Amino acid sequence: MIIEGKLVHIATIDPESSGDDDEVDDHFIDARSRGKSLAEFRFRVEEAIKGNYLFTTNDDDDDGARLWGVEATDAAVLSKFLKAKRYKVYEAFTALRRTLRWRADFRPADDDLAPPWDNVWFASGADKEGRPLCYSVLGREYQRNLMSMGQQSCNEYLRWRLLCLEKGIRRLNFQSGGVDSIVQIVDMRHAGGPTTKEMKLIGKKMIALLHDHYPGIVHKNLIINVPSWFLTLNALKLRLVTKRSKNKFIFVKQSRVTETLLKYATIENILVQYGGLRRENDTEFTTEDKVLEAYIRANGTELIQIPVEVGVSVTWDITVIGYDVAYREEFVPEDDCSYKILLQEKRMGEGMRNSFYIREEGKIVISIVNHSFTRKKAFYRYKTKASMPIHRIHN
């Protein structure tokens, strides 16, 4: 959350909650104790399966108790419940049984039961630790549905949010050393006006389900493009949030979205609509292409020069954190008798991509003028390839 220009982390947790389900840092539990608890927990689960008193769910129609696509006795699954319950075996075992019962009844991973809102959920890129970045886009349409359809719509909306989470889980690898958590990014840019009673109820239910049935699955919940009314309504909750849970939910207003996402992902893994360089189905660049950096001093100008050769096409990507700079692209020939070619000139309000066929010796020069009183940072990349000019290709 942003207050007086500073990023503040808040969690939408009921302030009256005792916090018993909050995860504990592994550093406070020695390896021997963790191993002992894990062995005891696995023994309890195996005995429950043999005695047929462990409520099971079959996501993959396989035999045996399964959770998130793997066996319920898997160390990765058991460790998440143990950590959530401070390595208290009985409490972890009870939580696992409740989760399996809930999944068997609610069937959150069943695509056929969810409303057709797939176009507002997608996964793209990964954070610096390889965790999938999973996006959910909220819009006015869902607000109207909630207000017009009542409880039925609320249930559908909650089921959609859970299915989004389940789709993210399908991208995980619970094998030893694999990525076993996701980063959820909820975009509130088009969320509409102040939350309704139904929306608040859904929010509380969603938080409760995450704590009870998805321990350790979500590494961070980044709520981005948060409207001012939301920040205002939640400001007083800051004093009621415990230190342990405040870093799970991060609320960010529009002007700080790219800066915040950069704390968790590299610029080439952040989508272009959020200030990054990543474009879906990109045929020009990959995350392996080198990204360069440049700083534009306050009230200053930065020149980025791209060396090129004759007979090639050069393509470049560039974004400036915070945008709001004057942007100019031109081809500058080495021959003093040739003319400069202006390629583009505008006020930057989004990431830029352009290309140009080189017919003579010279270079691409990008000018970025920063009229603000703070230094800005630019990220850019480029590549060249041999090609024919477009007008000749069509002849």
UniProtKB/TrEMBL annotation:
An annotated Gene Ontology molecular function: lipid binding
Stored Pfam families: CRAL_TRIO, GOLD_PATL1_C
All copies of domain CRAL-TRIO, residue ranges: 109-282
Lineage top rank: taxon: Eukaryota
UniProt-listed CDD domains: SEC14 (cd00170)
Descriptive protein name: CRAL-TRIO domain-containing protein
Natural source organism: Salvia splendens
Highest classification ranks of the organism: Eukaryota, Viridiplantae, Streptophyta, Embryophyta, Tracheophyta
